[in-house]
């Protein structure tokens, strides 16, 4: 009946504990050599299977750790790239807002300047028109006076 290494070691321990001690010291005992050797052989035969299982478990664990590490690195890389894009997008948006504000301010300034220039131009045009109308009116009055004077004679 096959046993695992732990149970075989337990059996060897029991055999040692149940053995006869020598009269000269409690740390020496008499064992049944064939039984002890049989247990040692079984332990030796069981070790490779146990080691293979342990090795397989360690290998699986290492693979899982490597996979987890790769996934974590991928997640971190993706998060860093997304953060860079978001920061870049935010910078572009901030720059666009700043430029839009500058353009709006420039437009307001140009509009004011154009309004002032237009008002000055219209004022000057109206003044010259008024002067031309006054000059024409004075000419008409002068001609009328001359006509009156000529008609009275």
Description:
By secondary structure, this protein is mainly alpha-helical. It has one domain. It is built from 2 helices and 2 strands; from the N terminus they run H-E-E-H. A two-stranded antiparallel ribbon has the order 1-2. Helix 1 (5-18) packs antiparallel against helix 2 (33-152). The model has no long low-confidence stretch (mean pLDDT 87).
Quick synopsis:
88% of the residues lie in helices and 3% in strands. With 153 residues, the chain is an all-alpha fold.
Blueprint of the fold:
Layout: H1 5-18, E1 20-21, E2 29-30, H2 33-152
Antiparallel strand pairs: 1-2
Core attributes:
single chain; 153 residues; mainly alpha; two-stranded antiparallel sheet; 2 helices; 2 strands; 88% helix; rod-shaped
Largest sheet features: 2 strands, antiparallel
Q: Largest sheet, order of strands side by side?
A: 1-2
Which H/E pattern describes the elements?
Answer: HEEH
* Total number of beta strands: 2
β-strand percent reads: under 5%
Summarize model confidence as the mean pLDDT: 87
> Gyration radius, to the nearest Å?
56 Å
Shape: rod-shaped
